[in-house]
Amino acid sequence: MAEGILRAAAGNLIDVHSAGSNPAGFVHPKAIEVLKEIDIDISTHTSKHMNTFLDRQIATVITVCDNADQACPLYPGQVNRYHWGFEDPSHAEGSEEEVLAEFRRVRDEIRKVFEAFAAGLCEGARIKN
Questions:
Q1: CA angle (41 as vertex; 33, 19 as ends), nearest 5
Q2: Selected residue with higher pLDDT from 95 and 11
Q3: Which residue from 5, 45, 56, 72 has the fewest beta carbons nearer than 10 Å?
Q4: Across the chain, which distance is largest between two alpha carbons, in Å?
Q5: CATH superfamily ID and name for 2-128
Q6: How far apart are CA 64 and CA 118, in angstroms?
Q7: How far apart are CA 73 and CA 21, in angstroms?
Q8: Domain locations in the chain?
């Protein structure tokens, strides 16, 4: 969800990629569903391991899961590192609607943080120009 939201908020300013320390091997169908509700399509996204990007110049790393900050390596050229620990909605239990509500709650938290982050990037780009 984080990749889709950040792409929508700042994809015109930065190149966004997503990876995990222990990827599930698929994008959760409920993540696809709740992002579609806010007009973000992640249906073609894939689950990737963070080592996929070790040979790339990565300027900024943003971690979003509880222990991802400790598990994430330093990348060549990395300048910035941010951590926002969102709960993993894939562990939610309950009825179908309760689980969807948890996915929506986390989606909305991610969206609020990433839209603010993107606004800061836009402001920084405006000041530089």
A1: 95
A2: 95
A3: 56
A4: 51
A5: Response regulator (3.40.50.2300)
A6: 16
A7: 9
A8: 2-128
Calpha distance 124→76 (Å, rounded): 23
Report CA dihedral (26, 111, 37, 13) to the nearest 10 degrees. -80
Evaluate whether 62 touches 6 at the Cβ level (below 8 Å). Answer: yes
Q: What is the DSSP string of the chain?
A: -HHHHHHHHHTTTS-----BSS--SS--HHHHHHHHTTT---TT----BGGGGTTS--SEEEE-STTHHHHPPPPTT--EEEE-----GGG--SSHHHHHHHHHHHHHHHHHHHHHHHHHHHHHHHHH-
Reading the block at residue 72, the tokens are 């994430």
The Cα–Cα gap between 4 and 41 comes to 7
Query: Mean pLDDT across the chain, nearest whole number?
Result: 87
